[in-house]
């Protein structure tokens, strides 16, 4: 059964399934093709008649096989700036809105992934759920203003801001409340949400940060080094093809210290003037409530392919020293991590988990809380059915969206997993609706909600380990 939404730009036709209306492939900006490649996001044009919105739009260019694309019924194109919207009804009910920014290291992912299907959340919470596509990799994050001119930097963030502006102006046509928008993101999506907050973006009213590695926001020097590698591969004469762009960005050496990625937001002096951790510590950001956290074993999924012959005491010490930086004795921190973990592999993963995910997230929201803003901290400890993964990166996604069967290896799909998913959804929905799902976080050692086989708030959770990393972030050095 079809349904219509009457936006300021024209009418859209979606379809209805199990009491949820879905609008797919909704354009929020002009296609970034031709002369608009490497250029700031431009508004989309209005249309006449009824525009079909029953099929997902193309995903952004990324390294994915044609067979995998075809299996999922998807296409790939630079013409990718679209939204997907799930709503109980395209009426005037003014429901809370959840806008979710996917992860993938700014080189992978899309808003039409089965894990991010918003049907269950929209139905369960009587909310509107929105996912989006935006430019990725070099097409979204290349820092080369001398080549592409002013306005060519941080295009991913510019796309995301344009999408949020579109949502403010048009979500009412889908039964949503434009004054009750929660921007959520996971992994690189969480980095984007925090960076938008730090840049003063006022296009959302609440924020959810899941597993965001804020230390990945790069300096112009680091971003320029990536651009030099990229341009060395594709040249500056003429426009490279998508295939050449993907090949070039896949060959970039991101650096030794895990887990550096070549394409992330950078301090371009335009979209981002200062590092988000510096901003959080030195001046007020938009005074909005924040729910933030990470999984207990984020990095274990990335270490799973390392053989036991690799993860030796020497390897773990070298990793700890690389992460801690020169001039810092790592004996004390290694002793603390060995006390909490049973194996060298667990220690190696925990070091990166804290350095990249937990500690910078804690510092960002701690500063926000100290300014009197509502902050709710969590740690997800629900284990994967694969013992070697623990509570790993991405495991929050099937639990939050309720799509356990889409990736049963991440969080399971049995009755216990469904119960955990329902509990987490209820907490997230309470926050999205404007409530306080648990006790507020008020600084180091403050209440942290532990979500796992035994859930509840904990005080002083892992404060000593997290304090070690304070010297590694721009806010403190």
Automatic annotation (TrEMBL):
**Which first-to-last residue range defines the signal peptide?**
none
Keyword hit for Hydrolase: yes
The organism's lineage is: Bacteria, Bacillati, Actinomycetota, Actinomycetes, Mycobacteriales
Enumerate the InterPro entries for this protein: AB_hydrolase_fold, AChE-related_enzymes, CarbesteraseB, Carboxylesterase_B_CS
Protein name per Swiss-Prot or TrEMBL: Carboxylic ester hydrolase
Task: Give every Carboxylesterase type B domain span.
Answer: 5-439
Q: Which Pfam families match?
A: COesterase
Enumerate the UniProt keywords alphabetically: Hydrolase
Keyword set includes ATP-binding: no
Q: Name one GO molecular function term.
A: carboxylic ester hydrolase activity
